[in-house]
Amino acid sequence: MTALPIRVAALYKFTRFDDPAAIRGPLLALCEAQGIAGTLLLAEEGINGTIAGTPEAIDAVLAHIRALPGCADIEVKFSGAAEMPFYRLKVRLKKEIVTLGEPGVDPTQDVGTYVDPAEWNALIADPDTIVIDTRNDYEVAIGQFEGAIDPETPSFRDFPAWFRGQRAKLLGRTNKPKVAMYCTGGIRCEKSTAFLKAEGIEDVYHLKGGILKYLEDIPEEESLWRGECFVFDERVSVGHGLKQGPYVLCRACRYPLGPEELASPEYEDGVSCPHCIADRTPEQRVRYAERQKQARLARKRGEQHVGDSHEDLRERRRAEKLAAKEAARKAAAEQDDG
User: Fold this and answer.
1) Region Disordered: start and end of each range (predicted)?
2) With left for phi above 0 and alpha for psi between -120 and 50, is residue 254 left, alpha or beta?
3) Does domain 113-227 have CATH number 3.30.470.20?
4) Boundaries of every domain in the chain
5) How many CB atoms lie within 10 A of CB 133?
6) 71 among known catalytic residues
7) What is the pLDDT along the chain (338 residues), one digit of tens a residue?
């Protein structure tokens, strides 16, 4: 079978960078020179991201990253794509490489036990194991492991509050709980095990390499995974063998849509879907329709339309949430003043 021309590398490493800003410049320059697209995040706690390019370009960038402090054994998951799944390159400085919002949690000091994909089935099939999906609600909606608990959180930042609120219910049945957690590539579940250990839970495990490594290594007939795995690029989802799945991203709300949702009368490309139509004002729908028209024209000309990438959609959704919170705050303040 002919190999796909684009190599996608999902990577992360919790390690101590004394000066992330000094790392950014040379890394950005190399990625630009190699024609890499995607996103890399740098913080004092390490590096995280997904990038894509030719196999030779990816190899060159990974060689550079592996030479960074503590990164010789960096976790990398490879997959292929028929075309570039990202529109641009971003190398950003952050406070955290994955945002939990718990300053005392340090995965470089203490994390749970890594479990290889080959051992994962036995662990989560054990009735004494509490299995928790640490991903966002829209990711879990299209696939998860059998028997896993879905926190129904819109972002990873919400995980600590969810766990503290559900702790007694989750762990009340045992004095020594055994907790197994997983996520897409391993970074969120690794950080969440550090959080649980900081909360006093000792018997904590996480899937090494995440769902992506499991889908790569475990044959479908032996798999306890059900559905598709959401990925943060233009492929939207992958299945066993890391083959691109059937899902399409709603360009209005970033929710993954399957064939049934795409056939819904509530779906309009770039404007609305069954998950967001009730939240869209007529003015927003007109604005989204015009934006989608401009995006189609740009693609016809072979250009990128600003706001068309997966990352831009995430930024827009974040901005809309912040605007809604601010409007609610002002309304509450006015009510109090009244």
Assistant:
1) 288-338
2) left
3) no
4) 6-93, 113-227, 256-337
5) 23
6) no
7) 457 899 999 999 999 999 999 999 999 999 999 999 999 999 999 999 999 999 999 999 999 999 999 999 998 999 889 899 998 999 999 999 999 999 989 999 999 999 999 999 999 999 999 999 999 999 999 999 999 999 999 999 999 999 999 999 998 766 678 999 999 999 999 999 999 999 999 999 999 999 999 999 999 999 999 999 999 988 999 999 999 999 999 988 889 999 999 999 999 998 999 999 998 888 888 888 888 888 777 767 665 544 555 555 555 555 555 555 555 554 454 444 44
| pTM for this model (two decimals) | 0.82
Q: Measure the CA–CA gap between 186 and 205, rounded to whole angstroms.
A: 11
Token duo for residue 220: 């479908």
- Catalytic residue, chosen from 71, 183, 189, 250, is 183
Q: What angle do CA 170, 112, 47 make, to 5 degrees?
A: 120
Q: Which of 72, 13, 10, 7 is nearest to 34 (CA)?
A: 7
The hierarchical CATH code for the domain 6-93 is: 3.30.70.100
